[in-house]
Specification:
Order of helices and strands: EHHHHHHHEHHHHHHH
Number of domains: 1
Helix content: over 70%
CATH architecture: Up-down Bundle
CATH superfamily: MFS general substrate transporter like domains
CATH class: Mainly Alpha
Distance between the termini: 53 Å
Structural class: mainly alpha
Protein name: MFS-type drug efflux transporter P55
Pfam family, one: MFS_1
Number of strands: 2
Strand content: under 5%
CATH topology: Growth Hormone, Chain: A
InterPro entries: MFS, MFS_dom, MFS_trans_sf, Sugar_transporter_CS
Shape: globular
Number of helices: 14
Keywords: Membrane, Transmembrane, Transmembrane helix, Transport
Subcellular location: Endomembrane system
Radius of gyration: 21 Å
């Protein structure tokens, strides 16, 4: 096999339902990396309370995989472009199950953190391969529909994992780690339904495939949007349990339901709002709408004084998140030439998860100094600013297009 390979997209062909479902289930594994154990965070922190820096390290149980994903995803993208999608995907799914469940047997916080690092390696390979395969299998029109479905599936997977994780955490704080074994059920599906895309062994096509003018500037802006979104999003699983505790809610299952509410609304938004927002407002209008909805949700969380208020705030936040995530990936893949899909997928994956990793490092010192509600209100203000920037760019592009037509 040549070390350089491009992947042909079957124009206009209908995608088998089993193939689509397998891709969607694999995509849902990514949200499990953090959401599954979020409800047991308080109990885990209490178990290791005597450990030095337990407050920060217990939060790293959620966010440490994100650092590994961010570091490994670009390399996974290069491997995917050069050597194929399916074999790296199979290895990643197997490692996912092994690393995720190994925390059941760990008796030290350090051991759990090591298992989370390995889980991050697995998620990097899985998410990069799945996103690149979506680019290979689907036409642009099919891809936009699929990305909305993927966003919904990821959000629904988060709902199931959070609720099930909360119930298992009621039994024991280690319980949610058992959920990662479900990845093994997807190995036969990958073998049966995800064939390696056709490839032409042309180094020349790799070197000379054109990128449109302004690709790198636009792609850098897209990566920044993905990272800032994740920086905001990860405030919820890492800090919302502690905010709920402050207002008198200590149940892991209720914590799981609260976080899952945002995911459920995200799923509905991905399926129902995303296509309409894209067609009505366009690319930058979608960004403006998404960031504004998320900003309102964060602001409502910061002033919530009851469980019902938290639920409402999470629903509002989820509606913005559900229209943003599929838009980011759809825009990125639409911009990529065939030979770049793995690397574009890896870069998007890295930007999303570096934001998740960095989230506790800014939020925890901020919370220590100004309080937990201040962190949510501050990130809400930042999201409002991003929405304003998106509206400005949208208006400028609309004005430019109008002037061009008039000429």
């Amino acid at each position: 096999m040549s070390s350089a390979a491009t992947f042909a997209t079957p124009g206009g062909t209908e995608i088998p339902a089993a193939r689509r479902l397998t891709l969607l289930c694999l995509a849902a594994l990514t949200v499990m990396s953090g959401a599954t154990v979020a409800p047991s965070l308080l109990a885990l922190a209490a178990h290791f309370a005597q450990h030095p820096n337990s407050a920060l390290l217990s939060r790293l149980v959620l966010s440490l995989p994100a650092l590994t994903i961010a570091l490994c995803a670009p390399f996974a993208g290069v491997i995917s472009d050069r050597y194929g999608r399916r074999r790296p995907l199979l290895l990643a799914v197997g490692l996912y199950a092994l690393a995720g469940t190994s925390a059941l047997l760990q008796h030290s916080l350090e051991g759990i953190l090591v298992s989370r690092i390995l889980l991050g390696v697995a998620v990097a390979g899985t998410m990069t391969s799945v996103t690149a395969l979506a680019g290979d299998y689907f036409t642009p029109a099919q891809r936009q529909v699929y990305m909305g479905q993927q966003g919904a599936f990821i959000s629904l997977g988060g709902v199931i994992c959070l609720i099930l994780g909360g119930l298992l955490a009621e039994l024991h704080w280690r319980g949610p780690f058992a959920i990662y074994a479900v990845a093994l059920l997807l190995v036969p599906a990958v073998l049966l339904h995800l064939p390696e895309p056709q490839r032409s062994h042309s180094d020349k096509s790799l070197r000379k495939a054109p990128l449109y003018n302004g690709f790198w500037l636009g792609f850098a802006a897209l990566l920044s949007a993905a990272m800032l979104n994740s920086l905001a999003f990860f405030l919820i699983p890492t800090q919302l349990p502690f905010l709920l505790r402050d207002i008198g809610i200590n149940s892991p299952s209720l914590t799981g339901i609260a976080i899952a509410t945002g995911n459920l609304m995200g799923a509905l938004a991905s399926l129902m709002l995303f296509p309409r927002v894209c067609s009505t407002f366009g690319k930058f209008g979608n960004f403006a709408f998404s960031f504004a909805a998320m900003a309102v949700g964060m602001s409502l969380i910061s002033i919530a004084d009851s469980y019902s208020a938290i639920i409402i705030a999470m629903a509002v936040y989820g509606s913005g998140m559900g229209t943003l995530i599929p838009h980011i990936f759809s825009t990125g893949l639409q911009s990529a030439t065939e030979h770049m899909r793995g690397r574009v997928s890896g870069a998007l994956t890295a930007s999303i998860f570096i934001g998740q990793f960095l989230s506790p490092f800014w939020s925890q010192p901020w919370i220590d100094s100004f309080g937990i509600t201040s962190a949510f209100s501050t990130i809400g203000l930042g999201l409002f600013l991003l929405s304003g920037v998106s509206i400005t760019v949208h208006c400028l592009k609309t004005k430019t297009s109008t002037e061009t037509i008039l000429r």
